[in-house]
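User: Please predict the structure of the protein below. I'd like the answer in structure-token form so I can feed it into my own downstream comparison script.

Assistant: Understood. Taking the following sequence of 179 residues as input:
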Amino acid sequence: MDLTIVYWIVIAMMIVGIIGSVIPGIPGSILILAAIIIWGIATGFVGIGLPLITIFIVLFISTVIEYLGAYFGARQLGASKWSQLGAIAGMVLGFFGLLPALPFGGPILGALAGAIIGAFLGEFFYRSNLELNARLKQALKVSIGVFIGSIVGNIIEVFLAIIAVVIFVISTWPPVPLQ
């Protein structure tokens, strides 16, 4: 297959990967990494050594930020360790589909919903010394923090995915002949 065709297929995969960083159910960073590996195999990894390492680091950081966003969002609003553990447990359960099936969104939306529900339940049960109304308010406040933190983490992930694609294009553009 012509190298130019492979290049444009790889670029298309990366664009879908950027979209996947925003839309639940579409692979994001993983698709970008797969595209880079395909390009590397097609070219014998010529010219993408240091940029490839940089891209891997950027995409790893983006994945970590996405998951830590919910944690720090809850923590900023005074979440207890129980709500943080609940958010993590809910995220895992939601990701693997152990929560009731959602009509759309797949595992990513399940992870977000699970984190919100888990944080709410963890905080609600931890604050048993408060009256019901105060418990509900604190648990809701923490859940909102998880949601906002997740959204901020997702925005950062999209930004980092775009940076990874730009690094790839800048580092590989000269070897591809324009036709």
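That's the full token string. The mean pLDDT is 79.
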